[in-house]
Amino acid sequence: MQVLLLGGHGKVALHLTPLLLKRAWNVTSVVRNPDHESEILALGKGLKGKVNVLISSLEDVKSAGDAQKIIDTVSPDYVVWSAGAGGKGGPNSTIAIDQEAAKHFLTASFATKGITKFLMVSYLGSRKTQPTWMPDDQWAGIVRMNSEILPTYAKAKQEADEYMTALAAQRKRDPSAGHFQAINLRPGILTEEPATRKVELGITANGRGSVTREDVAIVADELLARADTEGWLDLVNGEEEISEAVERVAREKVDAVAGEDVEGMVKRFFG
């Protein structure tokens, strides 16, 4: 398998890359800064898969055509979006990368024959409606984060997530469209600690919970390795072993999009 990893020098991506290579998958890691190339290439030492680095700024992706050029260069089977402005460059960069470039890659990926999976790393609070399983105090924390602390980031992530959800819903209605896994992995507050390998995955009442970046990568790797994972999957550290949690959400078809207006998303983007 060939994986296109966007945002390859991000901390989650740096944990994810060797996990994918251990599966004998090849990874093309897209980074902006050429100084990071040697660090990423070193991640492949002694592993079965091959890692390549593509130097490209996602802020320069202004259309689906721009995204398509990168996709055509790599010819991936799977696409992973683990990119973001990270608060650098102000609101304009956040909108350009987290929202617009993400949408352009989604458009191109869904339209490209041969791509069968797109995993988006989003965040747990990227939603408009309080879910039935979340207490008022936890939801209030998310609302404050989205409206007062990181409003531009929240807007950008919601737009990209809803676009992805609308594309996936639309594709399912097309009997001629092939199987496609649209996986929206939604971690809580990210931490630097080593992996615990224990999580709450799928739906969690812990709206302000945290999760290690390494655990996010391990979950992403296991989700990508299966043919039956899709939808919105919230993620915080918890008590369930990761492999068991992934098996459960796949078996039970857990989707944290519940309560959101998916039909409204489809109408907004596609009329």
From TrEMBL:
Gene3D superfamilies named among the record's database cross-references: NAD(P)-binding Rossmann-like Domain
Pfam family, one: NAD_binding_10
Signal peptide positions on this chain: none
Residues in NAD(P)-binding domain copies: 7-225
Family according to the record: Belongs to the avfA family.
Protein name: NAD(P)-binding domain-containing protein
Species name: Penicillium arizonense
